[in-house]
Design a protein that fits this description.
This protein is mainly alpha-helical. It is 64% helix and 0% strand. It has helices at 3-19, 33-43, 58-70, 87-112, 118-126, 132-147, 153-161, 164-168, 172-188. Helix 2 packs across helix 3 (58-70), helix 6 (132-147) packs antiparallel against helix 7 and helix 6 (132-147) crosses helix 9 (172-188).
Length: 191
Amino acid sequence: MNAELLERAIRLWKQAFVIRRRLPKSLAVCEDVRTIERWFRHEQDLLAVPLRPAASDREALVRMLTSFAATSFNQRAFTLRAPSKGKKARAKAATSAILLQTYALEALAAERGLEVSSAVRECLAAGNYPKELTLLAYAHELVRRTEYASQGASVYWLWLELDERTRNGVTVETVQTAEQRLSDWLNCRAV
């Protein structure tokens, strides 16, 4: 994964995380980029200087805010750990999250000239994979959030699967370490 793009995505993610608290309740569940963009254009001068994005990052930050609105804000109704509420929604999010993990692993393998063997695919299907894969998939989605809104509930699922220390410590270095561990895992299972 491109370290510069990831670093930018993490920086914007942290900015959006702080800025989202300033969103009015009417926008807290808004998934319309134009509506959030209008609000942001009006309010950006009221933000503390460190939170004001560079002109080149404004669009990406608005997309990040929109994706927060579509996922994190809207998830109060989508309780992943509730035993009976929204079983179908949770199952769909879990299935989509596994696909996001598979895509992230395939992208890493292609980037490093490795193969995703049938043994690895069996591990993925059985849910027997390194925890770093969840971090890698989430990092891929962070980058995608700067380009357009991402996969909603499945990204939230990935987020909840990360332990709290990992959630609070996402950096380019932690993602690169995860990539290396996953590369090693793929090499060990190359058949």
